[in-house]
Each structure stands twice: as structure tokens, then as C-alpha cells.
Design a protein that fits this description.
Pfam families: adh_short. The chain has about 280 residues and is α/β, with parallel strands linked by helices. It contains eleven helices and seven strands. The chain has a single domain, classed as NAD(P)-binding Rossmann-like Domain (Rossmann fold). It is about 50% helix and about 15% strand.
């Protein structure tokens, strides 16, 4: 018998924060959480996009939020708790500058680390602080979601620093899941293969990264959102999407030398697929 989807009962409302919610995966996550009964606070560095998305998907509100600002994370948590006790915080905001590490600009290096890693750190800390305050007031538990990536599980030439930040937040999710389990705070990371979003489209058409990503399986933002939300209320720490690609990436990490000899073949497959889409 399939497991029943996690939902929020009307008699015990909970709020949810989604970072980077103005478009793409973030918008899909917000839509899914609204469907499941959360009072969603859509946040984005682009305040206008956050507000427009909130209206479009029926969320409670949309506000501007820069995830690199440690103190702003606590302000966002307080805003969400005005809607209802915090039930979920999804660290989705991210940037995806492609290119070899030696070729990235210093600005892009800092942005990858500050947004993809430190943004998750500040979000997790703010969420945990809010959950603990609520527990003291008699409303225990909650979930933290993290949008990671299949690249967290193995080497991806052309996305080396991006993949490193995703590996870091996946490790962070696993450790926090253990640290917070006794407090009924779940921590979950979703690791999708390539997702057909603006982030992928913005990569260099002739670059190594875009070709490798296209050699895999392109999933939709809605699929990512459902897979992440399905982990809420469970002890599952992470899942890959699709599952078989996760097994393949883990084998690449175990034997990077032999497996990466296939990289030119995979890149050629990705470029061939890209041509068929045009």
C-alpha cells in the first residue's frame, strides 16, 4: 500500500518558507506546499518576483530575501510565524555558474559559496531556532528541505565548484538529521539530475557542463517538488531523482579514474541530444 502524502491539517495550520521561490524549482516547491495545506511564504532576492509568484500560486505572501544575509534569515522566520507556526523551511535558492574552477571569476566563486552553501547554513540555523522556540511554547517539530543536486554524489567536470557546494549541503543535511532527530526536526535533501530551468539554460551552450547534464535525465520542477515534499514527516534524509542515476553517480565517486574515461562519450551524447531539441 503506497504511503500517504504528507499534508497539513486545517485545524493545525503551519507555515512554510521557500527560498529562491520566484521561479523554477522554488515556484514548484511553493505550489506543492500550498497544495498540501501550508501557508507558504515565498521569498526571493527579487522581491517583485516573489510577490508575483505568491499571488499566482495562492501562497500567503511573497517577500524579498537575500539568503547570504544571516540576520535576514531570522526576520523571514519571524514573518512566517506571523502566518502560522513554522512547519517547513526549504533552502532552495542557488546559483549555477558553470566552468572549470580555474576559469571562474572571483565574483562567481564567492557567489557559489555564499549562496549555495552559506545561504543554506543561515537558513538552517534560523529554522532550527524557530522550531526550538515553538517547541518551548508547545508546538514541536518541523521539516527542513534542501535542494541539492545529483552532482553532490560524484565529480562533474565543468561544474566543479557548484558540485562541491552541493556535496557540502548534502553532508550538512545528513549530519543535521542526526543532530536534530530527538527534537522531531526532519532534515531532507533532494538530489535531482538536470532540471529544465533557467539555471540549465544559462549555461554555455558549448560548455562541458551543459553537455554532461543533458546526457542524463531532465526532470521537471514539479517532479522535484513532489519528491522533496514526500520526505517531510519521514526519517528519510535524501533521495536522488531518478533513483538509478544516483546509483550511477555514486559508482563514479567510488572509482573516478575509470568512470571519468567515459566523460567524452557522455558529453557527445549530451550535445547530440541538445541538437535534437532545436
Amino acid at each position: 500500500m503506497p504511503r500517504r502524502s504528507h499534508t497539513v491539517p486545517a485545524h493545525a495550520p503551519r507555515s512554510a518558507v521557500v527560498t529562491g521561490g520566484g521561479r523554477g524549482i522554488g515556484e514548484a516547491i511553493g505550489t506543492e506546499l500550498v497544495r498540501r495545506g501550508y501557508r507558504v511564504l515565498v521569498t526571493d532576492v527579487d522581491a517583485a518576483a516573489a510577490a508575483a509568484t505568491a499571488t499566482r500560486i495562492g501562497a500567503a505572501a511573497g517577500v524579498g530575501y537575500d539568503v547570504t544575509d544571516e540576520h535576514a534569515a531570522h526576520d523571514v522566520a519571524a514573518r512566517a510565524r506571523e502566518l502560522a507556526p513554522l512547519g517547513a523551511w526549504v533552502n532552495n535558492a542557488g546559483v549555477g555558474f558553470d566552468g572549470a574552477l580555474s576559469e571562474l571569476s572571483s565574483e562567481h566563486v564567492r557567489a557559489l559559496v555564499e549562496v549555495n552553501l552559506m545561504g543554506v547554513v543561515w537558513g538552517c540555523r534560523a529554522a532550527v531556532a524557530a522550531f526550538r522556540e515553538q517547541t518551548a511554547a508547545g508546538t514541536p517539530g518541523g521539516d527542513i528541505g534542501i535542494t541539492a543536486s545529483l552532482s553532490a554524489l560524484g565529480p562533474v567536470p565543468g561544474l566543479s565548484l557548484y558540485a562541491a557546494t552541493k556535496a557540502a549541503v548534502l553532508s550538512l543535511a545528513a549530519a543535521q538529521a542526526c543532530e536534530l532527530r530527538a527534537e522531531r526536526i526532519g532534515v531532507h535533501a533532494i538530489c535531482p539530475d538536470g532540471v529544465n530551468t533557467e539555471l540549465l539554460r544559462s549555461m554555455a551552450d558549448d560548455g562541458q557542463a551543459k553537455a554532461l547534464v543533458r546526457s542524463g535525465v531532465l526532470v521537471t520542477p514539479a517532479q522535484v517538488a513532489r519528491a522533496l515534499a514526500d520526505m517531510f514527516g519521514t526519517r528519510r534524509v535524501y533521495r536522488t531523482l531518478p533513483g538509478w542515476r544516483g546509483a550511477l553517480m555514486r559508482s563514479t565517486a567510488l572509482a573516478p579514474g575509470p568512470m571519468l574515461r567515459l566523460e567524452p562519450v557522455m558529453r557527445a551524447i549530451g550535445r547530440r541530444r541538445a541538437r535534437t531539441l532545436h
